Input
Amino acid sequence: MQTRDEEFGEVALTQTVNLLRFARRLTSDPSSAEDLVQETLMRAWRAFDQFRGGTNARAWLFRIMLNVFYGQGRKGHLTLVPLGDLDGPTVDGRNQNLEVSDALARLPADQRAVLLLGVVEGFTCREMSDMLAIPMGTVMSRLSRARGAMRRQLGVAENEAGAKVEAYSQRESS
Amino acid sequence: MNCEDIEKLSPLWHTGELEPARQTAFDTHVATCQDCADALRSQISVDSSLRDVVLAVDPHLQQSARRIETRVAAEIAGERSRRWLFPSIAAAAAAIAAVIFIAIPRPAAKVDARVLADASRDHTVEVIQNAPRHWRTDPSEIAAIVASQGVSAADVKALEATGYRLDRAKICRVAGLPYLHLVYAKAGREFSVYMRKKSDQPLPDALSVAGSLQVASFSRGRVQAVVVTEASVADCDRFTHTAEAAL
Output
């Protein structure tokens, strides 16, 4: 029989890295991100009796985090990521990582959240709709706008995207 | 379905949420419309760049996570102890609780959970949705990319003991690390095997279910691998155990 601590460890603490990675991009500040994750885990602990085993623990935790984030009046807040704090070495001598991070940071928080949840964390539109308590259509339009803005900022023209994907595949297999 | 519909529905296409009839109509339009095909490729390119950057290996992330867990453990212990009458006893209890909490065995913590999630997502996009990718089907080309990852061609071949033939291969990134993405097929049924040379980062041995997908993983001999399929749990279990035994 597992204790409550053991259950919480398995359900929630295994997600700490995922939550933190998301929080760092969402808040654009490593220190704020740590605070956000800590508050998320504490709220999860206090509400753990309401968590039903077998349900989607990741979605539950991300929902709590988003509630904390928006509850702090950060809706629409826009700050630039301190790039040097978040990114590792550059690729091929270019600032590719910085370009992507910068483009992401320039998105409105609402769009940045769905792009990270959908593309990086792998949540479906339905899950994001439940998580954010907004209609599916709103999730879809935010995702489309976010992808469009990223594409424009990264200068990925549609007719060159195929070539970029191909070049990426070639580089990976070389 | 027209171009406007494609633009509107593309978020559902990316997440694999289109109903079968709409999926077919979507694919039919994209196959005949260069503009929409280019737009989707552009979106895939942006998504890929974003994943590469955000999921890049970052040792500071792990350190920060451990720091947070320590603080959470202390805070939880503190909340409990505030109910106690004597502060000194409460403080001691908080310290002990923090140590116990941190020492709780967490089986999944040994594993980078992103590996399974990433592999599932990759299989959905590249195999189920058949998104445009540069697959290698020529045996000599497959041999070249297998060798480039430090994996033995014999290990790749050994998995055909499952009764499934190696159909195609490519290199992809899973949880920020390069993996061989090998697709084994038989009678229209496909198994994705994400294989890499065995590393210090262990994978779980357990079989798990993610939505309509079965996901299993194993480390055996010189390699570690994640298996993703739409086949049944029993078939996935059989494939995985046969593959392990063959290595």
